[in-house]
Amino acid sequence: MAVTQFEPADARRCFPCWDEPAAKATFKITLDVPSELVALSNMPVIEEQLNGDRKVVSFQETPIMSTYLVAVVVGLFDYVEDHTSDGTKVRVYCQVGKGNQGTFALKVAVKTLELYKEYFAVPYSLPKLDMVAIPDFAAGAMENYGLVTYRETALLYDYQHSAAANKQRVAIVVAHELAHQWFGNLVTMEWWTHLWLNEGFATWVSYLAVDRLFPEWKIWIQFLDQTTEGLRLDGLAESHPIEVEINHAGEIEEIFDAISYKKGASVIRMLQSYLGPDCFQRALATYIKRHACSNAKTEDLWAVLEEESGEPVNQLMSSWTKQQGYPVVTVKVKDQQLEFAQSQFSSSGSHGDGQWIVPITLCCGSYDACHNFLLKEKSATLDIKEFLGCSIAKQGLMETRGNVECSWIKLNVDQTGFYRVKYDEHLASRLRCAIERTYLSATDRFGILDDCYALCMARHQSLTTLITLMGAYREEFDYTVLSNLINISYKVTRITADATPELLDYIKQFFVSLFQYAAEKLGWEPKKEESHLDAMLRGELLTALAEFGHDLTQKEAIVRFHAYVNDRNTPLLPPDIRKAAYVAVMQTVTSSNRSDYESLLRVYRETDLSQEKGRILSSLGSCPDPEIILEVLNFLLSPEVRSQDAIFGLAICKEGREVAWKWLKENWEHISKTWGSGFLITRFISAIVSPFSSEEKAKEVEEFFATRSKPSIARTLKQSIERVLINAKWVQSIRKEGELEEVVKELAYRKY
Known about the structure:
Blueprint: E1 2-3, E2 30-34, E3 38-41, E4 45-51, E5 54-59, E6 72-75, E7 78-83, E8 89-94, H1 103-120, E9 128-134, E10 141-142, E11 147-151, H2 164-180, E12 187-189, H3 195-213, H4 219-222, H5 224-234, H6 249-252, H7 258-275, H8 277-291, E13 294-296, H9 298-309, H10 313-321, E14 327-334, E15 337-344, E16 358-364, E17 370-375, E18 379-383, H11 384-388, E19 391-392, E20 405-406, E21 409-411, E22 420-423, H12 425-436, H13 442-457, H14 463-470, H15 479-499, H16 504-522, H17 532-547, H18 551-566, H19 575-588, H20 595-606, H21 610-620, H22 626-636, H23 657-675, H24 680-689, H25 695-705, H26 711-735, H27 740-749
Parallel strand pairs: 8-9, 9-11, 12-13, 14-22, 19-20
Antiparallel strand pairs: 1-6, 2-5, 3-6, 4-5, 7-8, 10-11, 14-15, 15-18, 16-17, 16-21
Helix pairs in contact: 1-2, 2-3, 3-7, 5-7, 7-8, 8-9, 13-14, 13-15, 14-27, 15-16, 15-17, 15-26, 16-17, 16-27, 17-19, 18-19, 19-21, 20-21, 23-24, 24-26, 25-26
């Protein structure tokens, strides 16, 4: 199979061209290929001339487009085909024998093209759309005009062996790439500084599309995972503004990151929420019509939004796109006044001097009446009675949530704003009670937890405060909230292991009891007609219980794994819980007891499903035996693991950290040579370096890379070292917490 990938700046390696986004041209492509192979390009074939065992394939001339979107694919393929209601032919191409795995993506693509045609009020601009599953493909997917290429895991869905999470990923990635056919391909960013216009919008619109197609997935709650990743990266001093100056082609790869995609999408959601969905949609349609077949910069979009809304969008949004970082808004009650203050949030706990125009939303005691205002200055004070029409209850959580006395106040309603909130102790304790009594929406329960975790890491709140808050989520059952709770519990466990190892067993015991309620409710067996979200949640909960050493979960998982090894079609291990079983297995493997490890590798070698291989690779690193970890890491460099997939195996447990660092140093030359030209190499650094938590290790990493850095890894390296230093300060802070031991032990032993 032969495949091109030109974004960002590699078309020049294939043909002479002005290889910049604004230098648009039309392309007339002809290919000379072996006669038995399928040849694809951006446009339909107009002629094929056979010449013995070769053929010359000519394609229609393209509309005007950027060089990075030109594409060619040649290979042996099966395909499935459908048409949109206005006759656009849509095909999914994949390796021979995998055709049926393309049917889900095909359905999503046809419906999404029709949805975007209506939403943008502009039809899809080419006569056909081909989507191709590529077995070896570094990027997740690439939006080449009319010929979209994907990793197999992002396009193929096996109804028997793929998990619910795989299905969701396929839908989101397809919707993302098809959004680019308008936002990126038809209207293209003027220069890479405006990359976020492509990626932020495609990310945001993909969630809008998936929500329309699969409302039961509650995808806008899951969008909070995107916002959180943007916030986590943007809390670093080594982050960058959404609009970042690009002076060298080698710098472009590194900004394909959580800022361009996830912060970009999040500030778009914030702006849409502020202007209203109808006004926003009308403005987007105008923007696409005005700049079709041309290029645009960020200010062009703001101008259209200003025309449509009458709001000073450019002034409002410049503070979000031209400066890095975001604010933490502190709120406290004083004499029936609400006092607000904004300051730049930093995960290191340091103080920045950024200032934003912050769209503040808040509700008081109920969602019936939400209030909003723009916080333009560093601080503001509001009279509670005048602004909210109520007063703050002095004590206890009011059962009757009338409008006279207000039992709780929540800022950043439904987490539409890209900022953190820090409450005074009085307001925070009210919110804890409101969480326990499920007065708050899932999005707000998510936000309170996520903000508290970030403030704890930045040492603005204690770990004791965070763990006490986590205890309020014991009866939580929303997928996205629990998923974030699980991720935070992993991070708390890791930092506790470094700071207070004597409390580690109690912390794990507390997390086991925290997740047992939901896990027991779901059980091991999928229920008939159960929701997509329950299927995803079961897998994550059981994986967490296995990670935290829950004996019953581990034993049950291993029994089911053995049944699966003996019979790959057993109903005892459906795809959604396989990762949990694999993790449980690896937790019990040692260099002297390795038969289950060998069995898991056998499953890896025998499966043809990329998603299954990914599940296994991401589980291998949870083995606590350093000798096995070294074997796993060497396995990642073997020909048995596709180079695109090696990064899945870098999730290494605490016991394997030092082994992984030593391995990275010893193999750096090979890794740099193999992965050096793309974004994948940055994952090796961030995955292996970031989890450390000592200043000595940060220095060691800096010294090692002093003579080995290059433009494509420079930013990631600085970010990873910064994370190590943040962890080091956090560890020191936790060691000084007097109440932590008492609180952790009380929570670990508490009976519910």
